[in-house]
Design a protein that fits this description.
By secondary structure, the chain is mainly α. Helix content is about 60%, strand content about 5%.
Length: about 80
Amino acid sequence: MSESASKTKNSNRVLPHKHCKICQEAISTKAEPRVCKKEECITKNGKNEKSQKQVRILMLVFFGIFALPFIASIVLQVAG
């Protein structure tokens, strides 16, 4: 392979990076949380995380509500 072909091949490489979860802009691989430095992206990411946390809590509550009668019937059968 000639030297010029080698340079061309290496220049086409993309440096390692991540993308902002909100606007898809390229950001550093070390960025945590995975958002760019735009205020609107930071705000929207905060709202999204809060919403996801609420959904997880509600899912656990509903799972508990439906699992409680099942567990209670098993306990009553064993005790009785």
